[in-house]
Design goal:
The protein has about 190 residues and is an alpha+beta fold. About 25% of the residues lie in helices and about 35% in strands. The structure holds coenzyme A.
Length: about 190
């Protein structure tokens, strides 16, 4: 349970490969370059984001550094293993809806880190005053889709063939207390 939007939280993730200790908290200055490298590897592999490869610093900055409400890191043994950004999905009257994007380093995947990051982002978004969350461009074949749906996000739109001939989906989730995630998908 976070006690504020800038809190850091130690977590133990348990899975078939044993347990993993991570910490989730605001990105530190020293982690900016590792995050560029992590995101650059995701873009080079054509995974999950529309950015053209190779990733430029300007494109990285635009997505991750300015303007964001929060950039949150997952670290294990002191090293960056994942991150998400949280920002208004648009200006003015739509700024109550948050947008977020998640990455996990290839070597750290399938250990539950993305799940922990999405859960953290829902909680932190509420603490930052957002009342809903929206993902604008989720590739139809993105492996995170079951995770988003288990945590209460619903597909509200489909953009046909916009990513290299593949559909992209728009996901939305209210953050009001009355719209908690489905039973069995505890958020924390
Ligand atoms: C998508 C991504 C964030 C998932 O990170 P992760 O830490 O491996 O995910 P988790 O271990 O928390 O997995 C949570 C659930 O997501 C689903 N999932 C995640 N990766 C999967 C994969 N490669 N294949 C099938 N299902 C997968 C599963 O339902 C999984 O639950 P399970 O392990 O109990 O089956 C990571 O692969 C990544 O960074 N990809 C590139 C960037 C990206 O696509 N970001 C999302 C943009 S919409």
């Amino acid at each position: 349970m976070l006690d504020g939007p800038t809190a850091s939280l130690p977590l133990t993730l348990s899975g078939p490969n044993g347990s993993l200790q991570i910490e989730i908290g605001p990105l530190r200055d020293l982690e900016v370059r590792p995050l560029f490298d992590l995101f650059g590897a995701v873009i080079a592999a054509g995974e999950g984001y529309a950015h053209a490869a190779p990733l430029t610093w300007a494109s990285f900055e635009e997505t991750w550094l300015v303007p964001t409400t929060a950039v949150v890191a997952a670290r294990s043994e002191g090293g960056l293993v994942g991150a998400y950004y949280l920002k208004p999905n648009g200006p003015g009257r739509v700024a109550h809806v948050a947008n977020a994007g998640y990455v996990v380093a290839a070597k750290a995947r399938r250990r539950g880190i993305a799940r922990a990051l999405v859960v953290d982002s829902i909680e932190r978004a509420r603490l930052c005053g957002f009342d809903a969350m929206q993902f604008n461009l989720v590739f139809a074949d993105n492996p995170a889709r079951p995770l988003y749906e288990a945590l209460g996000f619903e597909v509200v739109g489909r953009l046909p063939k916009v990513i290299s001939g593949q559909d992209a989906l728009i996901y939305f989730r209210s953050l009001s207390p009355a719209s908690a995630a489905p039973a069995g998908a505890a958020e924390a």
